[in-house]
Amino acid sequence: MREAVVRTETRPGRLLPVRPRGWWFDLLLLAGFVALTVALAQGHLLTVDERVADWADDHRPTPLYVLLRVLNYLGQGGQVLMPIAIVLAGLVAWRRRSVRPLLVFAAIFALTYVTIGPLKVWLDRAAPAFEGPDRLVLFNDYASGLKAMSYPSGHVANALVWYGVIAVLLNALLRSLDRPPLTARRYAALRVLPPAIVFCTTTWLAYHWITDSVAGLLLGLVLTRLLARIPWDAIPLPRLPRGLDRPAGL
Q1: Helix, strand, coil: what percent of the chain each, to 5?
Q2: Where are the domains of the chain?
Q3: Cα distance between residue 47 and residue 170, in whole Å
Q4: Which of 88, 92, 150, 215 is close enough to 101 for a disulfide, judged by CB 3.0 to 4.6 Å?
Q5: Degrees to nearest 5, angle at CA 41 with 224 and 72
Q6: 219/240 Cα distance (integer angstroms)
Q7: What is the torsion angle, in degrees rounded to the nearest 10, for the CA atoms of residue 37, residue 41, residue 47 and residue 48?
Q8: CATH fold for the domain made of 24-232
């Protein structure tokens, strides 16, 4: 599934359009996430999860396992994605003499922190590697802490959100260097391919049940579309010293 941002001159207070346009698609994605969560809570689709996990366990030779582990780092938020994003934000902020790129990073960090994490804690689902009872169910009384944070997949949701941010910041950096931004094809590849790879690797490595990854996909798309609407250069800011509130080509 692919969505693109249409970047136009935007007045303060006016959101950027996304594709598909309007909020109906966001509501559809959110409804899908809620429906999937309710279905799992009522015991549906658990057999599908178990069969996919068993198949993955039976089709994971050592060379493939090593490759999957390496590729899975594409979805590591704290170790890979956030460091890349903050470096890009810092470079754009330095080149443009503007705080706005740093606000982009801060806003995305805050949004993912208050959405993905709390949902994982509340829904309390163990990963396939859990050896205790009821490993498939939500609200598992036998799993707690880090052992019960499988749903939704943070790898998939974070990959969708952070690669969207990285694409925006990378384009801004290229503009600051008087270089052409990413072509539409390369922009789409950066937005789509890493999350797709992470979706496959987390499931194949049994880090997550497949419904965890689907839930992460749905939630990540909602967050990505929400963030894509924000006109970062048009957000009203108080006047800052040295014009640090100036637009940054975002």
Answers
A1: 65, 0, 35
A2: 24-232
A3: 42
A4: 92
A5: 45
A6: 35
A7: 0
A8: Vanadium-containing Chloroperoxidase; domain 1 (1.20.144)
